[in-house]
Amino acid sequence: GIGMKERDAGEVTVRNTDLATFTALVRYLCTDQLDLGEEGGGRAQRALDLRQLAQMYQVPRLELLCAQALQESVGPASAVPLLEAAHATGDGRLLAQCRRYVADNAAEVRASGGVEQLRDLGVAKGLLGDALDQVAELKGTVAAR
């Protein structure tokens, strides 16, 4: 090109992403298909990262598809990390879904190591508050009998 050194011609630096996530963005833009790769825990992280890219590059439909994929990927092992991610990104819908999931499936979440994955003190306090509310509700139900 004009005024460019040969070695710079083929390189573009994209910050705040990894190759697999950026590839998923380009694939979506070319095919209109969301591809999060293999099944399993990696899909939720890819959906989180891809949603962030979709926000950055203003691709609202992809952002929505990623949000739906995140809601579908809430499970025993992913509920706590997704709860923290929802808290960090201000995703109220995913936050509420994860809180409800943890409350309804506490034993499974605990058995999967979800509690040990907690990093955010605010989220930990919120979950503790939810648990205390449940205990109070149960005591109220027992006392009413």
Low-confidence stretches: none
For the termini, the CA-CA separation is 82 Å
The run of helices and strands is HHHHHHH
Report the structural category.
mainly alpha
- Give the radius of gyration: 20 Å
How many β-strands, per DSSP? 0
What is the 3D form? elongated
Helix content: 55-70%
How many distinct helices?
A: 7
Structural domain count: 2
Provide mean pLDDT, rounded: 87
β content, as a range? under 5%
The biggest beta sheet reads: none
Organism: Emiliania huxleyi
Domain BTB: 5-73
Pfam families: BTB
InterPro entries: BTB/POZ_dom, SKP1/BTB/POZ_sf
Description:
- With 145 residues, the protein is mainly alpha-helical.
- It has 7 helices and no strands.
- The chain folds into 2 domains: 73 residues, no CATH class; 70 residues, no CATH class.
- It is elongated and about 70 Å long.
- The mean pLDDT is 87.
- It holds the Pfam family BTB.
- InterPro entries: BTB/POZ_dom (IPR000210), SKP1/BTB/POZ_sf (IPR011333).
